[in-house]
Amino acid sequence: MTSSTHIEPFEAQSINSTSFAARLGHGLGKLFLATKNKAKSKYQQVTLGINQSLEEEEARRFFEVQMALDAQAEDYEQLLVEQRKHWIKKTVLFCFLTLFLGSAATICVLYNYVIF
After folding, report:
1. Quick count: other Cβ atoms within 10 Å of Cβ 74?
2. How far is CA 51 from CA 40, 46, 48, 56, in A?
3. Number of Cβ atoms within 10 Å of the Cβ of 25
4. Rounded-to-integer distance, Cα 69 and Cα 67, Å
5. Spatial contact of 26 and 15, defined as CB atoms under 8 Å apart
């Protein structure tokens, strides 16, 4: 055995036998291959359909989750805006109240200082 880079291609021998068993075997082999190919193609079609429906379902669920998250984010932003408005109102009210009380206290002190 010598190592050679030249490889001869394999050639299948044709059926030269004309016996009944050889023809029957050849016919059954063709039938088996045709059946196998049909089953394989049907399996691939069914698998492709299942995969496609799974992808569509996943996309639909992703869209639903994204919509729910967007709605939650919008509600949370609205809640923050309302809280800010509430605290701004309280702060402004407290500032005016302290300004009024400070002014009243100053007037009272000056009034008492001038009178006495």
Report:
1. 10
2. 16, 9, 5, 9
3. 13
4. 5
5. yes
The pLDDT-based confidence of 18 (bands split at 50, 70, 90) is: confident
SS3 95: helix
Contact between 22 and 15 (Cβ < 8 Å): yes
- pLDDT of 24-83, one tens digit each? 888 898 999 999 999 999 999 999 999 999 999 999 999 999 999 999 999 999 999 999
pTM beyond 0.85: the answer is no
In this structure, what token pair is assigned to residue 16? Answer: 């030269």
